[in-house]
Design a protein that fits this description.
By secondary structure, the chain is of the alpha/beta class. About 45% of the residues lie in helices and about 20% in strands. The chain has helices spanning about 35, 45-65, 85-100, 110-120, 160-170, 180-185, 210-225, 230-255, 275-285, 305-315; strands spanning about 1-5, 10-20, 25-30, 75-80, 105-110, 130-135, 140-145, 150-155, 265-270, 290-295. Helix 3 links the parallel strand 4 (about 75-80) and strand 5 (about 105-110). Helix 5 (about 160-170) crosses helix 6 (about 180-185), helix 5 packs parallel to helix 7 and helix 8 (about 230-255) runs parallel beside helix 9 (about 275-285). Zinc ion (ZN) binds near residues 111, 135, 270 and 302.
Length: about 325
């Protein structure tokens, strides 16, 4: 089975062609970062228009790069939520149009499940597994029991982890998106230099809170006044270390209460592109006799391949042209 996956829920216009044997024939990702940079974050209306401008071209290039003809596609999967509704409408409507024209099934995909199943696309990872999903919009710990079945153990009660990275970066005058740049600066910094709060870490639950951490960073920056580059690097390293500690604290609790059949942890979503956090979670997993999985960096942030793969895993033979796009849609 060959599936086209379409992703437009935030600031990447992406189309991928994926086979059910896990071959990624193409995965075109057109980032709108340059468009949104001057605003310090994604502007929904501008994002939707940019998706509309790009989607048809990106689709054509994905088909060409895959080396197939459009008639060889067996189904079209598209993100139908959660996300910025303008972009979701553009991508899902375009996908439905292609499905109708080709007379092939349309598969609506939940963006979060797309992230959640991505470690299975590039690894031999069996169900059930424990998932930490940390992206620009979400921070969730969930048991992934099957392609259509999960049990959420906890999630953020305010900001997401990625949002916290981006907002801290903004306070440090680092351009959007801040996550990758903070990781880079942290390499030259001391992770123990600044003591930052660990919100909710004294609570026996799997919920996260990042807004207090963000405020603590803001006060630290104010206290520093005119800062040196070294102090900036130290703050990036200390912040990244704090996020890592929060993740580990919550995973520690999750493994106490999770299904005893679970023997693997998967880390997904944009923040899972962070190699420092990845290495720490890998060490944590092996210390707890659990296998650790994540995706290659290019598949951690938003991409069409994860949507195509989720479509392949969830396809039940039906075409869901009636499925309405939505801005919220839980895991
Ligand atoms: O999954 P994603 O591409 O989009 C959403 O579904 O939200 O995640 C984007 C988020 C952004 O907040 C970005 O700063 C963060 O992932 N991110 C990172 C890194 N790369 C991307 N955060 C920390 N370290 C990174 N290397
Ligand atoms: Zn995402």
């Amino acid at each position: 089975m060959i599936v086209a996956g379409i992703e437009t829920s935030c600031d990447e216009t992406s189309v991928a062609i994926v086979k059910d044997d896990k071959t990624i024939l193409s995965n075109m990702v057109l980032s709108q970062i340059e468009t949104h940079k001057k605003f310090g974050g994604v502007v929904p209306e501008i994002a939707a228009r940019a998706h509309l401008d790009a989607i048809s071209k990106v689709f054509d290039i994905a088909i060409e790069q895959a080396g197939i003809s459009i008639s060889q596609i067996d189904a079209i999967a598209a993100t139908c939520g959660p996300g910025l509704i303008g972009g979701v409408i553009v991508g899902s409507s375009f996908a439905k149009g292609i499905a109708i024209a080709l007379n092939k099934p349309f598969i609506p995909v939940n963006h979060l499940i797309g992230h959640a199943l991505t470690p299975r696309l590039t690894n031999k990872l069996d169900y059930p597994y424990l998932l930490l999903l940390a992206s620009g919009g979400h921070c969730i710990i969930s048991e992934i029991l099957g392609p259509n079945l999960s049990r959420t153990l906890g999630q953020t009660i305010d900001d997401s982890a990625g949002e916290c990275f981006d907002k801290v970066a903004k306070m440090l005058a680092i351009p959007y998106p801040g996550g990758p740049k903070i990781e880079q600066l942290a390499k030259s910094g001391d992770p123990l230099k600044f003591k930052l709060p660990l919100p909710l870490c004294n609570k026996k639950n799997c919920n996260f809170s990042f807004s207090g951490l963000k405020t603590a960073v803001l006060y630290t920056i104010k206290d520093l006044g005119e800062r040196t580059d070294q102090e900036k690097n130290n703050l990036c390293a200390s912040f990244q270390e704090t996020i890592t500690k929060i993740f580990i604290n919550k995973l520690k609790y999750a493994i106490e209460i999770m299904d005893p059949n679970i023997s693997s942890i998967a880390f997904a979503g944009g923040v899972s592109a962070n190699q420092y956090i990845n290495n720490s979670l890998k060490d944590f997993s092996s210390a707890n006799n659990l296998k650790f999985y994540n995706a290659p960096i290019g598949l951690c942030t938003d991409n069409g391949a994860m949507i195509a793969w989720c479509g392949i895993e969830q396809f039940d033979g039906s075409s869901r042209l009636d499925f309405a796009p939505r801005s919220t849609w839980p895991l």
